[in-house]
Every structure is written in structure tokens, then in C-alpha cells.
Design goal:
With 164 residues, the protein is an alpha+beta fold. It is built from 5 helices and 6 strands. The longest helix is centred in the first third of the chain and has 13 residues.
Amino acid sequence: MDGTEEILNLLRDNARISAEDIAAMTKKTVPEVQSIIQSLENEGVIMKYATIINPEKDSAKHGAVRAEIEIQCAPEREHGFDGIADRIYRFPQVKSLYLMSGGYDLKVVIEGDTLQDVALFVARKLSTLEGVRSTKTHFFLKTYKENDIVYVEKNTDSREGVIA
């Protein structure tokens, strides 16, 4: 085993971990770790290193509106759902797009500055695409957990206990 999975797990947990720290934790040399990471990047396994930001504490995004949209659509001949998905994920408002099983075909997560921005995007962009049969929009009200990160701060009682 070349340690690839172990290195990926360490990077999943902390993308800022140094090659030196990974080498110490995996008992590999720094050049071996750097080579494995470079290979993973070249193969497209590692696509991007990102920072996870608490949306409720991000002053630049304060007031931004996120929504999940369920889309029922007709698959295209020879392209299936890929053609319509390609048109949808190109919109800058679209943050995530998934092909789903069940009661709808695509799930889209979008972000806008206001409720009206999101509503207009759905009405003027998504619902007008050829092949879209229906949409259902669900607005995110509060984020409790995302990407394995718990956003809810626990209120701890800092008062000292009194024993009678």
C-alpha cells in the first residue's frame, strides 16, 4: 500500500497540513508524500483545496440566501440528464448540482443576495430551460452541520455549582 488513502484522509481533515507533518504521521519521506499528493492532483482526485466558512459569521455573506431546488425534467435523447445538468451548473448562482433518485431528477443548491434574487433565478433561468417540467424551492433557514462541520455553538453554563 502506498499510503494514498491515509494521505487523503489527513488532507480531508486538514487541507493545510504540511507534507512534513504528513510524512511524520505516515512514516514516509517528505518527497514520497509530495509525489503522492502531486499524482493525486494530476489525476483529478484532489481537485481543490478549500476553506469552510461559517455562513452565519461571514460578514461578506451576511444576509445571503441559500436554497435547494428540486427539479423534475425530461432526459434528453442521447445525453440523458447530462445535457440539462451542463446548462444548469454553468450559472454562477449554482453552488451544487446532483442527479437524484426518487421523486425528482436534479437537486440544485443556489445562492443569491435576497429571496427575490433566488425567486427570479428560478422563475427566469431554471424553470424556462427546455426539458424542465417542474421545480420546488426550499430555502435554507439555518445550518446546523455541513461538510462534517457542526455550526451550532453549545451554550455552556459557566456558573459555578452550589452544593447545599
